[in-house]
C-alpha cells in the first residue's frame, strides 16, 4: 500500500496511480451523467447546465483542492433552493449571477479559515435539513416520473402509462441491480443500469399509442459541438447584482453549498483507505472557484458530493486524477454525445433522482433520530416541518434555536445534587458550572432543604456566576431563621448580596 502524502502535496501526485484512477474516473462518470441531467431538470435548469456543472467540478476543483477522493458536481441538496430562487429572482439569468457571487463568498470564507464553521451546526439540524430536501426532491420528481410534469399535481390522477412504466422499471432495476451477479461490475453502476433499462423500454414502447413515450419526454441536449452547447446555455445577468435579493440568494447558496461540501469531505475522509485528511479551508477555496466558473458559464452550483466520492472509493480511486478523468469524460459527453443522450427518457432520470432524494430521508435515519431521544428528535422534526412548510433558512434557524434550547435545558438540570454523608450532613455538590441558566433549579434544591439540617454547599473546582452566588448568599443569610447550619466550600461569597437574590 502506498504511503499517504501530506495535504499540500504537489500536483505530480495526481499520476501516482494512473491505471486505477482512470478506471475509477470512468465509473464515476457513468454515475454522474444521469445525476447531472436529472438534478439539472429537477432544479428547473436545462440539462446542459447540469453537465457544465459536472465538467467544472471535475476539471477545476481537483487542481485546487487537496482532497484525494472527493468528487464535485451539481448537488441534489440545492434543488429546492434553486427552484425557489428562480421564482424569487425572475428566472435563471439573475440566479446564475448569484451562483458566481456565491463562489466569491466561498473564496472569502476559505481565506478567512471558516472551514470549521460546519462543526457548529448540530447534526440533528443538518439531518433535518437534508431530510426535508429529500422530501422536496421526491415530491418534485413524482410528476416527471408519471409523465405529467406540465400539468403539475392536479394531473397526477391521470398519469401517462408509458412514462410511468419506464420510471417503475428504472426504479426496480436501480434497487435490484446491486443484488444481482452483475452488480459487482464496477463499470456498470446501478444508476447506469436503471437509465439503460428505462431507455430500452421507452424505445420499445415507441412515441405513439396509449403506452407511448412522446418526443417531449426525452432529454433535450444540443447537437453540433461547442458552439451549439454555448448557444443552448443560459447567460448570467450581471446587471442583476444591483438587486439586494440576488446577494441574499448568493449568501444562501454559499452557506448551503459550503455546508454540504464540508460534510461530504468529512464523510469521504472516513472512507479513505489511506486515512488522509483533507484541509477544509482549501476545499472551500476550490469550491468557490468552481462556482464562480460554473455560474459564469451557465451551470448549476456545485459541491463535493458524497455519492460520487463514495463511488470513487468503491471503484478503487486513489488520487485526484480520478475526478479529472470524470470531468474530461463529461466534457466529451457534453460536446459530442448529445444525440446519444437524447435517447434517455426523463422518467428514467426522475427515478434516479427520486432514489437520491429517498436516501436523504431514509426511514432508518428517522428511526435513529427517534431513538436518540427528544433532545435530538425534536430539533430534527422542527427543521423538517419548517423547511417543508415555510423556507429552508427559517427551518435551519428554528432547528438551531430548538437545539440551543435543549442544550440550555439539559445544562440547567440537576446542576446541584444532594447527597448525605455518613455523619448525616446534607452535601449539596455542583455537578457542572453554576450559570444563571441553572439558577431556577439551584434555587429549587435550596428551597427543598428541610429546616434544622446541617448543610455543606460544595462548589470546589467549578465556575459559579454572580447570580447563583447571590442565591446561595440569600440561603446562608436565611439559615438562622430556619435553624440551618451551613458551610460553603469553594465559593467566594464576599461580593454577593444575599438580599439581592430573586
Q: What characteristics describe this protein?
A:
single chain; mainly alpha; Transcription Regulator spoIIAA; 2 domains; four-stranded mixed beta sheet; two-stranded antiparallel ribbon; 6% strand; disordered N terminus
Explain this structure to me?
With 502 residues, this protein is mainly alpha-helical. The protein folds into 2 domains: 346 residues, no CATH class; 85 residues, Transcription Regulator spoIIAA. It contains 20 helices and 6 strands. Strands 3-4-5-6 form a 4-stranded mixed sheet, with helices on one face. Helix 6 crosses helix 17. It starts with 17 loop residues before the first helix and ends in a 13-residue tail after the last strand. The relative contact order is 0.17. The N terminus is likely disordered.
SSE arrangement:
Elements (H helix, E strand, L loop, with lengths): L17 H25 L4 H13 L1 H4 L6 E4 L4 H11 L2 H20 L11 H23 L15 H16 L13 H16 L19 H8 L11 H28 L8 H18 L4 E4 H9 L6 H16 L1 H4 L4 H15 L2 H9 L2 H16 L2 H21 L3 E5 L5 E5 L8 H9 L6 E5 L7 H13 L6 E5 L13
Amino acid at each position: 500500500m502506498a504511503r499517504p502524502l501530506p495535504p499540500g502535496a504537489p500536483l505530480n501526485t495526481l499520476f501516482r496511480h494512473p491505471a486505477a484512477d482512470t478506471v475509477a474516473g470512468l465509473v464515476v462518470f457513468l454515475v454522474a451523467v444521469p445525476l447531472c441531467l436529472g438534478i439539472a431538470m429537477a432544479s428547473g435548469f436545462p440539462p446542459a447546465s447540469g453537465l457544465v456543472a459536472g465538467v467544472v467540478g471535475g476539471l477545476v476543483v481537483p487542481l485546487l483542492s487537496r482532497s484525494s477522493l472527493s468528487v464535485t458536481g451539481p448537488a441534489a441538496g440545492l434543488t429546492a433552493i434553486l427552484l425557489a430562487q428562480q421564482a424569487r429572482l425572475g428566472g435563471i439569468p439573475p440566479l446564475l449571477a448569484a451562483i458566481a457571487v456565491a463562489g466569491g463568498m466561498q473564496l472569502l470564507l476559505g481565506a478567512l479559515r471558516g472551514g470549521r464553521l460546519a462543526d457548529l451546526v448540530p447534526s440533528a439540524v443538518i439531518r433535518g435539513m437534508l431530510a426535508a430536501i429529500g422530501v422536496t426532491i421526491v415530491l418534485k420528481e413524482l410528476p416527471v416520473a408519471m409523465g405529467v410534469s406540465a400539468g403539475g399535481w392536479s394531473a397526477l390522477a391521470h398519469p401517462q402509462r408509458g412514462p410511468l412504466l419506464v420510471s417503475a422499471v428504472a426504479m426496480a432495476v436501480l434497487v435490484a441491480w446491486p443484488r444481482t451477479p452483475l452488480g459487482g461490475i464496477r463499470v456498470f453502476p446501478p444508476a447506469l443500469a436503471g437509465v439503460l433499462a428505462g431507455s430500452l423500454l421507452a424505445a420499445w414502447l415507441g412515441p405513439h399509442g396509449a403506452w407511448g413515450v412522446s418526443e417531449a419526454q426525452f432529454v433535450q441536449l444540443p447537437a453540433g459541438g461547442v458552439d451549439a452547447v454555448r448557444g443552448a446555455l443560459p447567460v448570467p445577468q450581471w446587471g442583476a447584482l444591483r438587486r439586494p435579493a440576488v446577494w441574499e440568494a448568493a449568501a444562501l447558496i454559499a452557506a448551503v453549498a459550503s455546508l454540504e461540501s464540508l460534510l461530504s469531505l468529512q464523510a469521504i475522509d472516513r472512507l479513505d483507505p489511506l486515512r488522509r485528511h483533507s484541509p477544509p479551508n482549501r476545499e472551500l477555496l476550490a469550491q468557490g472557484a468552481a462556482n464562480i466558473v460554473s455560474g459564469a458559464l451557465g451551470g448549476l452550483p456545485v459541491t463535493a458530493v458524497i455519492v460520487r466520492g463514495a463511488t470513487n472509493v468503491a471503484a478503487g480511486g486513489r488520487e485526484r486524477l480520478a475526478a479529472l478523468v470524470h470531468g474530461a469524460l463529461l466534457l466529451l459527453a457534453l460536446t459530442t454525445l448529445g444525440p446519444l443522450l437524447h435517447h434517455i427518457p426523463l422518467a428514467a432520470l426522475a427515478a434516479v433522482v427520486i432514489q437520491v432524494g429517498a436516501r436523504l430521508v431514509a426511514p432508518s435515519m428517522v428511526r435513529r433520530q427517534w431513538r436518540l431521544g427528544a433532545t435530538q428528535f425534536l430539533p430534527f422534526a422542527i427543521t423538517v416541518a419548517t423547511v417543508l412548510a415555510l423556507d429552508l433558512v427559517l427551518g435551519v434557524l428554528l432547528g438551531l434555536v430548538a437545539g440551543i434550547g435543549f442544550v440550555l435545558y439539559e445544562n440547567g438540570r440537576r446542576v446541584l445534587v444532594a447527597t448525605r454523608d455518613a455523619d448525616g450532613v446534607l452535601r449539596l455538590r455542583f455537578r457542572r458550572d453554576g450559570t444563571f441558566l441553572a439558577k431556577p433549579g439551584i434555587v429549587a434544591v435550596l428551597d427543598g432543604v428541610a429546616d434544622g439540617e446541617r448543610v455543606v454547599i460544595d462548589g470546589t473546582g467549578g465556575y459559579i456566576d454572580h447570580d447563583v452566588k447571590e442565591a446561595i448568599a440569600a440561603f446562608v443569610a436565611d439559615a438562622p431563621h430556619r435553624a440551618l447550619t451551613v458551610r460553603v466550600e469553594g465559593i467566594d461569597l464576599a461580593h454577593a448580596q444575599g438580599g439581592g437574590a430573586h
